[in-house]
Amino acid sequence: MQLGRNLPGVRSMNKALRSILVLASLSSLFHVTAGNAVAASTLRGGGTGAAMVLLNRLGEAFSAQNPGVSIEVVVGLGTSGAIEALVDGALDFAVAARSLTPSEQAKSLAFAPFCRTPFGIVTSYATPSGFGRLDLTDFYADPTSRWPDGTAVKVILRPRSDSDTMMLAKLSPRMAEVLDNLRKRAEIPIAATDQDNGKLAASLQGSLATMTYTQALSENLDLRFLEIDGIVPSVENLERGRYSLERRFYFVSRADNRAEAFIAFVRSPEGEKILREAGNLPVMP
């Protein structure tokens, strides 16, 4: 499956956002429709990169039940970009990977969770060992860290403001300091988007990166999750309360909520089935 290419200029969310997004989205989207007929109505959404393949699958299933409606998914926006585009009227709904900021709350947006997925540490290394949280912090901190066969560890970071960075920083009391020190090392890559992160993690030998379970599963990435404190990140362990690290995804919409029918479908038994198959647990608002 090929997603639409990133929209130029959108990540920076500059003053030209309205014109860039509205014009570029016409040529840089993938369309989810039932059959080949032209849809009579279109809903446009976007958001966190970790959920874009999931959103595509949900859109396909929704359109199959509603042949007159198509879902267009704008990629490359991220949570903040999608919420800005929603406020500007360029999107009908956004999928967020974090809570709304105070300034976003002031925009009178509807905001509700719809699923949660395990969050963890992945690697391209074939047989990684597990770590306790403190040991994992040391593993990140040591520039000479190696996997059991001697393969050098290649850390991949995310931007400071990214929700992955915030979650990783809370893994242990020292991790935030360790991440700050890692940013001073010029050789360590910083993946701007979830898709960049996935490609780097899968292609770099001995990689060490953060990721959601749903992205790794949905994009069929050749990566392994590390056990943390003896527990494997999985939907089953998350549901049983054995694994605690998770990311939640939220629907964000305006007061007019043109996406109400689609959001209701996601919460239906068929939508919940798709969520689970993609490595998520449904969450009721």
Automatic annotation (TrEMBL):
Transmembrane segments: none annotated. Pfam families: PBP_like_2. Keywords: Signal. Residues 35-270 form the PBP domain. Gene3D superfamilies: Periplasmic binding protein-like II (3.40.190.10). Residues 1-39 form the signal peptide. This is ABC-type phosphate transport system periplasmic component-like protein. The lineage of its organism: Bacteria, Pseudomonadati, Pseudomonadota, Alphaproteobacteria, Hyphomicrobiales.
